[in-house]
Automatic annotation (TrEMBL):
It comes from Amycolatopsis ultiminotia. One of its GO terms (molecular function) is hydrolase activity. InterPro entries: AB_hydrolase_1, AB_hydrolase_fold, Epox_hydrolase-like. This is Alpha/beta hydrolase. Keywords: Hydrolase. Residues 30-129 form the AB hydrolase-1 domain.
Amino acid sequence: MQTLPREFTRREACVNGTTLSYLIGGEGAPLVLLHGWPQTALAWRHVLAPLAGLGFTVVAPDLRGLGESARAESGYDKDTQADDLCGLLKALRLDQAVRLVGHDIGGMVAFACARRYPETVERLVLAELAVPGFGLEQAMDVAHGGRWHFGLFMTPQVPELLVAGHEEEFFRWWFAHLAGRPDAIAPADVAAVSRSYSGFASLRSGFEHYRTLLADGQVNRTWYEDGGRLTMPVLTIGGGLGAGTRLADGLRPAVPGVTTAVLPGVGHFVAEEDPGQFLRILAPFLIGTVHNRPERE
């Protein structure tokens, strides 16, 4: 079940013109976890307590418009959401030396945050995504083996009309399709996600995260073409049955020192499918015992 560890609480904050709900627990340097789609902050439920136990104040927000955060009409581009996160951390007085972990759509927001606020982000982890401008467009290209869902999800209103009333059936198929094993995500957890995303307004908020992706990519590429590079330590994590090393391969021009890890037997939902294996890779990087080294070509 998607239950909260006892040392964590749920709070909310009004930042950047919206209201964000977030989970917080632990004491120490700030560690932020940004979930993907179709998920909420509870996607991190298996790793919250272990990460807090490493000596971090762990903050896991529901992204704009998702979970228990307010259903926003706009602002789903990744730069605005980076400002959401910056506002939240400033409100919590946790905006220094941040370790930032992002999965899927949350990884796109994390990349934007590291690009916009490099003085704030000390270490960056990106898991199971393609970054707009650095591989995402190729992942969208259905004619050359790209995934079909991007074009559908980016179309206004159509995916809402198709999924509304069939949320649990759709998400049951979605998790089984992208996980390393069809039963990797428990039925009760799929049902909880389905309730969170149910109804036209909630579905719209979810799909709006996709409808900005081409513009997000243009922003990232302009930054890169103007000489932008990420210089903080960056780790990418891919499922062996998911993205593998493709994320790092796409990012390398903008992140020359990127390192990568692949979790064998794991699909897209790395922190839920195999939290033990995920933590064994993540923890040493976060606490600084594993340093960024350029990969061998």
